[in-house]
Sequence to fold (290 residues):
Amino acid sequence: MNNFNTQGGKIFCLDSESVVELHEILSNNIHLLEDMDPVEPRGVKNIGMLESAVSRQSVGSGTYYKYPDAFSNAATLVFGIIKNHAFHNGNKRAGLLALIKHLYLNGYVLCPSLNSNELYEILIAIADSNIPAFSKKHIKKYPFIRSKEEKREMEWESETQVRYFAFWVKKNSKPKESTIKGDVRIGQLKRVLDNKNIKMEQNGSNLDVFIEEENKFLGFVVSTKKRHKRSYSLGNNRTTIGRPTLAILRKDFNLTKIHGIDDTFFYDDEAFLDSEIKTYKKIIYQLSKT
Fold:
């Protein structure tokens, strides 16, 4: 991952290694392999084309960048990944995962209300250079305005298509602080609790959370006592805690937004991406067939 400063703030970008890792997920993720064969053949077909797609994010010089905000930066990366065909297979799917990851790194997520068919449709439109038809179909929902120069184009140039896609991405994104989806990994929960001096013990599908009080004598700890102990059920999945259960835990131990603890404290990149893969599993499967 790389980053650079623009007039609008810092932009976090994905490097080639990060994009390759996302592509590998298509062959390694258990949620996808239930319904979809691994990507074959695997790996990069043309490293130059991959680096070209990635470098689109940092086009510019000095303090000027061509894609200076999260939405246009994500859009040009995804456009490059899909159109450059740097991988033997799975380019559109890698583009989708790159969109999700890029937005998350820059503080955004795709809206939960986003129509899955529409997301699939626009990714296919990018691959087929058919953004104008997509725009015409959804003109009432997305009143995209082309410049005078763009209107003179016989066909939409690639930069016009990228600009439209950035417009669409912005319309369908929300700050991640207000829209965090999915379960939280137990390891991440423990890190948050440790930071707040709250202890946690897992016994199978049960989670005991408490505050440990030390009894000292002459400056030495002679014993400890568990105070404010609460128990929570994890259900069948013992590696994550569900959102409803987490909400109760946060309220019990003053870990809510009112107390300055935002939702994002409980998430890491890996957990979020795993959650989004579950959410868009059907689309990923559809993309594998086109």
